[in-house]
Amino acid sequence: MSYRDGEPVTEAENAATKESEAQPLLRGRKAVAYSIANLGYGAFYTLNNAILSLYLRRFTANAIVIGLLGSTHSFEGAVIQPLVGSASDRMRSKWGRRRPFILTAIPISSLFLLLTPLCAMLPHHVRLAALVVCIFLFTVTFNISQDPYNALMPDITPERQRGRVTGISMFIFLIGQVLLVMLPEKVGPFTVTTETKFSICALLMLATTLITCVLIKEPDHPHEVVQKTNHLQSIVVALRGLRTLRQARKALLVSFFSGLGVGAVFPFLTVFVKSITGCTDQVAEIAFLFLVATTALCVVPFGWLTDKIGPRAVLLIALTLIGSASLGGLWVQSIAQIKVVMILAGIGNAAQFAAAYPLLYLLVPPEETGFYTGLQSTALSIATPITSIVTGTLVNGGGYRRIFIVCSLCVAGAIYALAAVKLRHAPEEIADREQLLRLASESISETAG
What domains can you pick out in the chain, each with its CATH number? Predict the structure, then answer.
């Protein structure tokens, strides 16, 4: 008997693997072409996680406000992301089913990124409100584009290659993060200010998204069962799938708890460094760079490891390392100590990037990857604002170091949920789910007739 992720592989899983192996491999140039868009997405994440929080301190000292606005997910995503994911599963157009969402949302997100620094010129009594509106809108539209982009990866990549392709994609994502932080203060006659970085991020997202959408041709839709239902009916059918896809449900819990933990730290990370050490904004951003650079160096090897030993095992390594780094954050005092903790967290972050989506895609039918990618974002959209409010309240009452207590507890919850995921049950659950999808489609068609 063969094993994967420490569990015996069933005949159904072997059959699913053989079907996946029949798919053509994604060649290196195509993997890079798909990943180019992540250069702009990476710049967006750094803007949100390392730069925006410091920028917002010019206008408010309230840690709850900074935490909520400095997060890449927010409450509205709990509703929007599954709708977008399901709509991308059903989309039929000459551009495919994922690219129309990417090409529509990214220009809007870029527009509001460009408008955000202009809010500082408004009268004092409306300035913060205008910033909130712009940040809300560029975050919402960014997430509308990102879930279909992530769901595009399993559409074009066979299962046995997804860890490596994810690793390449995340490496380019992290290069985007590094680029924005490493920009010098002077580029020729131009001064690179925080406001300039908003514009650079917006233009980079536009350019890289367009390149990916031009170079990547989407495959035909894998199944036609969802086409017979209207959008509301398909959402209801998809939600009912959580009853059958029990392992996917557990994986979503892992995303929820890990999202709670990471969301407790990331919006406050550069502010924490500055408050503990008294350093400048630039030094705080460079400390954050140690996390990003370590993640970039390790994500491709972890992608390869994901294909070799399975995403569940790699995700367990990730959560263990992130939890250890959180405990280290409770005692660090100097920039040197903070850099060591950042490196440890970066290794864990790389493993999580490489394994999280491949794990989910093992547990759901290919015709519903968009919906369940959206549900994973829903978990983050619920988790991130909750943890921002909780940690913001703790910070307001006792300092930034408390964010690591919240992170450690949440990561422990994620490890507990991950231990309950049994990959050997997934192929049978997916087969049952696909049968239910066909029956639901036939029933709706007969009713409509």
Answer: 22-440 (1.20.1250.20)
